[in-house]
Specification:
Radius of gyration: 30 Å
Largest sheet: 5 strands, mixed
Structural class: alpha/beta
Helix content: 40-55%
Order of helices and strands: HHHHHHHHEHHHEEEEHEHHHE
Shape: elongated
Number of strands: 7
Strand order of the largest sheet: 1-6-3-4-2
C-alpha cells in the first residue's frame, strides 16, 4: 500500500512534571511542600517538573510513596518523554540533512521497494532522510559517506556511465539486505568449482525450475547469491564482491533478460570470484554485455565465462553453425541451451544479430526472499 502522506509527528513533548503539576493543583500543594515531602530541594523539584533533570529510579520510588501510582508508571512516563525529546532532536538533524537526498535515486528506490513511497516535498524530506538512513543502516550522511561514498575507490567499473555513486550504493545495499537474511557455510573454492559444473547444466531449464536449484548450489559453496530490482541510474546488471573475507556475493539485477545474457553475466561474476579472490576489497560493477569492459579483470572474466559455457575445443565448430537445427544439435551435444550458442554467434559476428533470435528465451526473474 502506498503511503503518500507524511506520518503524524507532533512537535510537542510533555514531561512527567506536567502530571506532577496536575497532582499539586488537585491537592493544593506548593512545590515547596512537595519538595519537603520528597526530601528534595525546591530547586530540584522545580527542575524535575520542567523536565530539566531526569526522573530517576530513586525519584520514582519516592513519588510512589508520596503522591501514589507506581514506580513503573513514573519511569515509563520519563522514558516516553526522553524518547520523544530524542526524536525531536533527531528530526531537527534530519531537516538539516535533506541535501543528502539529492545524491540518492529516491524515486527509483521507492519503485524498487527499498523505501516506502511518499511525496517528495519540503515537509516530507526529513522523514525521507530517516527512511534512507534506516535503509542503509547508518546513523548519518557522514557514515554513509564513510562506508558507501568512499566505497567508490574500490569500484572496478566496466562502463563509464557507472559513476552515480548514490544509485550504485543503493543497488549494492539492496543486495546486502537480502544477503544478510541468508545463512550458509564459509566459502569453499573447491566446492564452488564443483557447483559451477552443476550450474552449467541448469542452462537448459526454465527459470521456475533452475532458480531454486541455482540458489542451493551457491549456498552449498558459501556464496551469497541475490536477485534484486534494477536501479537504472546505476547502469549495473551484475556485481561480484566480498562481504567479508569468508563470503563472496554475486548480485544480479531483475532486468528482463534473454537467457544467453543472463547466463553469461552469471558466469562472468563467478569468474571474478574465482580469478580475483585476492582482491577482496574490490567491487566489480559489471554490465558485460555492453561495450567498455576493457580492464584486465573484465577481459579475464569475459574470456573465462565464454570458455566455460562453450569450451575452447568446440569453438572451431561455431563458424559452421548456419542453421537452427545445427545450432540445436551443437547445443545438445555440449549440454547448454541453444540460445546461449546464438548469443555467442552474434557476439562473435558469425551471424547477423537478427538471426535465430527465436532460439533465445526471454524470462523474468523474481527477487530473492
Amino acid at each position: 500500500m502506498t503511503d503518500l502522506a507524511a506520518p503524524f509527528t507532533p512537535d510537542w513533548v510533555s514531561p512527567p512534571g506536567e502530571t506532577l503539576l496536575d497532582i499539586l493543583e488537585e491537592r493544593d500543594w506548593t512545590q515547596d511542600e512537595l519538595a519537603q515531602r520528597l526530601g528534595y530541594t525546591p530547586k530540584h523539584v522545580n527542575q524535575l517538573i520542567k523536565g530539566k533533570v531526569p526522573l530517576t529510579e530513586d525519584a520514582a520510588i519516592r513519588l510512589e510513596r508520596v503522591v501514589g501510582s507506581t514506580v513503573g508508571f513514573w519511569l515509563a512516563r520519563e522514558a516516553k518523554y526522553r524518547e520523544r525529546c530524542a526524536r525531536l532532536a533527531a528530526a531537527e538533524k534530519f531537516a538539516g540533512w535533506t541535501d543528502w537526498l539529492d545524491i540518492l535515486p529516491i524515486k527509483e528506490m521507492m519503485s524498487a521497494g527499498a523505501i516506502k513511497k511518499r511525496r517528495i516535498d519540503a515537509k516530507s524530506k526529513p522523514t525521507l532522510v530517516e527512511s534512507c538512513l534506516r535503509f542503509f543502516g547508518i546513523a548519518s550522511p557522514d557514515e554513509w559517506q564513510g562506508r558507501y561514498g568512499q566505497m567508490q575507490v574500490a569500484f572496478r567499473r566496466s562502463r563509464e556511465e557507472q559513476s552515480d555513486v548514490g544509485a550504485i550504493s543503493a543497488w549494492l545495499r539492496m543486495g546486502e539486505q537480502v544477503a544478510e537474511k541468508q545463512d550458509g557455510v564459509k566459502f569453499s573454492r573447491i566446492r564452488f568449482i564443483s557447483v559451477l559444473d552443476e550450474i552449467r547444466k541448469l542452462t537448459v531449464l526454465p527459470p521456475e525450475q533452475f532458480e531454486p536449484l541455482l540458489r542451493e548450489c551457491f549456498k552449498s559453496a558459501g556464496v551469497a547469491f541475490v536477485l534484486v530490482p534494477a536501479i537504472p541510474k546505476a547502469h549495473v546488471s551484475g556485481v561480484a564482491r566480498w562481504l567479508n573475507p569468508h563470503r563472496p556475493l554475486i548480485q544480479l539485477s531483475l532486468y528482463g533478460k534473454t537467457n544467453d545474457k543472463f547466463w553469461f553475466t552469471l558466469f562472468h561474476e563467478a569468474a571474478h570470484v574465482l580469478l580475483h579472490s585476492k582482491e577482496k576489497e574490490s567491487v566489480y560493477l559489471d554490465d558485460p554485455t555492453k561495450a567498455g569492459a576493457d580492464s584486465v579483470q573484465e577481459r579475464e572474466a569475459n574470456d573465462w565465462a565464454g570458455n566455460f559455457l562453450i569450451p575452447a575445443r568446440y569453438t572451431a565448430q561455431l563458424a559452421g553453425l548456419r542453421t537452427k537445427a545445427a545450432v540445436c544439435d551443437f547445443a545438445r551435444a555440449i549440454g547448454i541451451h541453444p540460445g546461449i550458442v546464438v548469443g555467442r554467434l552474434q557476439h562473435d559476428g558469425l551471424i547477423d544479430p537478427s538471426w535465430m533470435n527465436d532460439l533465445r528465451e526471454s524470462f523474468k526473474l523474481t527477487a530473492a526472499e
